[in-house]
Each structure stands twice: as structure tokens, then as C-alpha cells.
Structure prediction request, 783 residues.
Amino acid sequence: MSAPASDPRFESARRRFLQGAAALAAVTLAPGVTLLAPRAAGAAASDKVRWAMLIDTTKCDAGCDHCVTACRDENGWTGHDRARTDPHWIRKVDLRDRATGATHSLPVMCQHCETPPCVDVCPTGASFKRADGIVLVDKHICIGCRYCMMACPYKARSFVHEDVTGQKPHAPRGKGTVESCTFCVHRVDAGQQPACVVACAEKAGQGAMVFGDLNDPNSEIAKAAGRHVTNRIRADLGLNQGVLYHGL
Amino acid sequence: MIDTTSYSTIRGNSTEYFTLLGWLALMVLAGLGASWYMEHNGHWVTGMDNQVVWGTPHVFAVFLVVAASGALNVASIASVFGKTEYKPLSRLSALLALALLAGGLAVLVLDLGRPDRLIVAMTTYNFKSIFAWNIYLYTGFFAVVGVYLWLMMDRPLAKFSKGAGTFAFLWRLILTTGTGSIFGFLVARQAYDAAIMAPMFVILSFAYGMAFFLLVLLALYRWTGRPLGDFLVGRLRNLLRLFVAASFYFVLVYHLTNLYGTENHGVERFLLLDGGVITALFWVGQVLVGYLAPMALLYHPATRESRANVVLASILVVLGGVAQMYVTIVGGQAYPLNLFPGYEASSSFFDGAITAYAPSVPEIALGLSGVAMALAIVTVALKVLPFAAEDLSDARMDPNSAAKAE
Amino acid sequence: MTQARNLGALLLALCALMVAAAVTLPAAADGRVPLPHPAKAYAGQQCVEPVDVMRRFHMQYLMHQRDDTVHGGIRGTKYSLKGCVECHAVASPGVADGKVRTLQPFCKECHSYAAVTIDCFGCHTGAAK
Prediction:
């Protein structure tokens, strides 16, 4: 197979893309929505990068679900009004402290563990972690056994219970396979922030979600994580998730 | 010792034989139809959902797979532990083991979201997955037990059957350990995540397999009119009641261990006290029907000598076993994951809520078809090859029969 | 894992070889199944490889890039299903009254002739933007 670079059409498109992206790279769109550096065409995801998200629950309102709506629109996981079997890539969870009565509200999605139990149990390797820490399902080799759903401590995964039509070109999904939050991998690879993060900043006006490379000390998330006391859901399991929470 | 037992195929040309086969075929067809219906529409037509992802098909599949390895025990006792009186039962034991495993796996595969990708499961592996190990353990079981059967049935090679039997015995222990570990290694769920799952499943397999074996044996010898003495039935009954008692012990330890940690009181309360169907199935199905009633029937001097009671107790053990799998598999998932200890959680995705799972007709049809498939395989195989000994009367089997039966 | 995929790709390639032969050979005698006539590319440009190479190996290219993209995160390389859709999606009266261009009719021409099932469109949209 010939290398992609041999295609002149592609090279020029790629160059245009990179130039445009570079010009935009430093632009901050809204609080918490800095553009990321896009990866060059043909380059693989790097293990030098650790994509992660920090969610400030003190800024997250109980009634607000802009992140959920944005995710649904971006990835097209509309349901059939069947609560039990409809997919949930991201959900808002409301909490009440049994002792103090204090309440919190926070979004929960795939926590992109460093050592994901879903990847351990998947018989075919369809559930896998990319080099940059994003946990995904390769739906081409998913056989729909749902063992990953049994293993996930966060209930982050959904099984596609019925036929799907009108998928987004960047988010293929189909009956009989398992799916979950992808950290908007198609956007991140192109240098954009995940849809939920953008929505939280722009629509909700909160900027409760920060996304970026935790391995880059100059990234907004690394700085924020250094400033705040952060927590991971069920940290006792030692899974070192890529989703951190502050204020919980 | 030379095995002088003569084996023969069953005639299998009576109306009853074909009626039995017809019913079994009908059940298998119903299961295939159910699977097609589920796959065509998607799993939303079943009782399973994103909360209870494994339902009734898995209850039956895991039960059958566990029973399969247990059904091999009679052969193992003869080959591995040198109890020659069980030797004439070895072929039937191995056959039943293969048939039950085939039935269980068929159900498991037919419930997959993408059963058409079975070839992917057979060619693409993640070796850290217990499921992937199990694919090897299960297919290996067919090969190992198949060779074992061949060595037993090919008389010039029979001298090698002890070695093959030992290997098959070890294989089945590993296999059931693997099945138990499917649940035992799930750290996220409080009802699982316990090392005792693996040995508990091994003990359960002893009981389920023996009950299944007794039922098949008693039916076969009754329906074919072949002699089967009380000596052997008594021996098998004694094993069954011991296995049931051991299962009960393991289940007690499992729950007591779980209860020791306060963090698990919620899930234990759900299973044992206020879980509705699950709680009822635990106390009535698993404990009363599955352990106490069969133990009473098989230990009490007034009831244990009756063959009808052995049949009844075996049926109860099987029913109790299905109930136990239901409590384990469905109950373990119906209780919500505890993401935020100390908090009450609620969401549109049922966080903090107990799931009310109700099995659907297609799921039950698919599950039962696995049992039917196993029995159909046995029924046909008995007609094709000489698996069944002709004479298991006390005069032949009981070393003390001349003196007086025990 | 790769070996098994290579085997699958080989089998697919064999099937494709037959299709390619069928497409390029002169029409068979009357009474035979009509030969496939896949539509011309919508945009009418040159494909990423010569036509005969694509007929034979498109499935290998797609599968190779599929694994690279999904697992490796490699994007922007040339054999993408999106690329297929861009050029080869056609309006067909059977789909949304001919208002939407989709890739399926193009694929179907040869695939139904060769009786090779495609598994792409259970998950991927074949519709052009």
C-alpha cells in the first residue's frame, strides 16, 4: 500500500488544514475552550499525551444538562423514548449527602481509566485504550457480549438495543454493539474540544469542564488540577481515571 | 482391571422415542426462533436493558455450562479415583458433559449482540479476558472429553483412558474455575468481586451435574427397560446429597463473608430481605427447593430409599440451581452500582435505583432450548454409539450382592 | 489477530477478484444474471487508486485504514469510507425519494452480483452531507 503522502491532492489539503489550525491554536474561544493542537494527518495518537477532563462540580447546576444535549447532538445517540434501553453516553447525576443533606450535581460519562476494567474483560479486544488514554469500542470487532458493561464501575456504557439510522459520519454506531463516551475523539484529533466542554462554557456559561493534556504542564487542565483538590469517582478501585472532579 | 461391561446402542425406534425427540426438536426450534426475533429487532424486545445486561439466557447458559463440567464427575470418579463400580457409567457421564456444554454455549452465542461475528470471537483474542480464556477452555473441553470418550470406547486403547480421564478432570476443574471467575473478578459489583466465586462454582457444578446425570440415567434405564440396581443409584444419591450440602455451605460462607463488611449490607439486604422476586427466589428457590428439600429427601431414612424421591430430589436440585443462577446473575446486576458511597444518587439513567427485571418469553424460550438441545444430543447419540451399559443390576455391580446389599 | 484479519482480507480479495473478472469480461450469454454497472463517480475525479486496483483491493484498503484509524488514531489518510461516500454516493429513487445521495446503491451493484454481504452500513451512514 502506498503512503498517504504520495497523494498530491491530499498533501495540499493537509497543508491548508495545518496552516489554518496553527493560526488558531492559541485562540481562546470562551473560558475553558482553548483549541488543542491538531494531530498531523497520518500521525498516530501518542502516549506522550494523556487526554483528561476536570469537572468543577461547584459550578455545575442541578437543572442544567447542556453537556448531555450537546453530546447527543454531536454523536447522534438519540433514543426511542424507552428509558431502560436507550443509550446514555453522558448523564447528569444528582447527589444528596446522607449525613449532611448537601446536594451536588455532576455529569458522569466514561471515565477513561488508565487501567480500564472493560478493556481487561473484553474477549476480542474491541474494548481498548488508545495510546493517548482515550478508551474506545472498536465496533468492527465487538460481538455484543456486554461483559464490559458488567465490568464497568461507572455504568458508562450502553448496548445498542435496536436498529440505528441517520448516524453522524464521525460517530458510527449500530445495533448489537456496545458504545460509550469517546471524549469526542474525532474532534480532539482535529484540534477541537469535546462537545460537552464547549456547551458547558458557551451555552451554560459555566466553564465547569476543562479538557486537555494532563501530561503537558502548561495545559489549562494541568494547571487547574494543580490548583484544586481533585477527586476521582471510586478512587478506591485505583483505576486512575482521566476524568477528575473538583468539589465532590 | 479389565472392563467386562457390555455396552450397546439403544434401539430408538419406538413412538415414545420419536415423540421425545420431536418435543425436544420443537423446543430447540422455538429457541432458534426466539434468537432470530431478538437479533432482528434488537435486544429491546427482551427484559434485558442497560441495567441488567445479562438476563435469562445467561441464567440458563451458565447453569448448563456449570452442570456440564459436573456431569463429567462420575467418569472422573471411576478413572481418576479408581472406583471401578462407576466405570460402566463413564461413557454416559462424558456424553452428557459434552451435550450440556454444547447446549449452554449455544444459548450464550445466540444471545450475543452480533452472533454473526462468532468468527471474530474465535480469531481475535484479548488474552487478559476471562471470556477469551473460556473460549479456549470450552472448546478444549470438547476436545479433551472427546478424546477421553474415544479412549474409553476403543477397547484396545482403554489402558490410556486413565491418563485422559485425569487430564479431563483437571481441565474441568480449571473450566469451572474460569466460569466462576467471570463473576469473581468483577471488582465493580458488590454481589460479585469475591474469590470464593470460583471454588463455589466448582462445588455447584458437582451438585448440578450429578442431579442432571441421575435424571438422565434413571430415565434412560427405565425407558429402555435395562436393569439398574439400587446399589449404584444409592451410591450416586449419597454423592448428590453430599454435593448439595457442600453447595449450601459455600453459599453460607459467601453471604456471611459479604455481610462482614458494612459496605455490603445494602446489597445483602437486597438479596436476602427486601429484593422482592430475587429474595423469594433465594429463600424458596435456592435454599428451600435447591438445598433443604433435596437434603431432607436424600438423608432421611424414611424417604431416601425410594427411587421416586431420588428423581424428585434431582429435579429440585436442578430447579434450585436455575434459581441460584438467577439470583446470582440477575440479582447481582439489579442492585445499583455504588458510585458515590455516602450519597443518595439519582439520574435519568437509573443511578441509585434497583432495576425491576422481568424475563421475556423469547429469553425463556432461548434458555430452555439449551436444555432441550443438550437432551436431544444425548437422545440421538445413545442411538448412534454404544454409550449405555446393558446391565447395571445389583447382581453385576454390587460386590456384596451375594452376601446382601448394603 | 493480524493473521486472522489477513486471512479474512485474502478471502475477501478472492471474492473481489471474481467480481472484478465479472465486471471486466464481456457480457455473458443471455439468460444470465445481468452484469453490475456501478454508477460513475459523483464528482467525476480520479479515484485514490486505478479502477482495477480499487475493484480488487478496496476492502483491504478500507480494513487496513479502519484498524489504523480506530486503534492508532491515524486520520487523514486516503482510503477512508468518508472519501468513498464523497465521490460515489448516488441519489437513488429508493432512498429518501432520491433527495439524499447514499453510497449503498453504488456498493450494491457488484456486491449483490457477487453475493458478498457488506457489514459497513449497520453502523456507518452511507449518506453524503
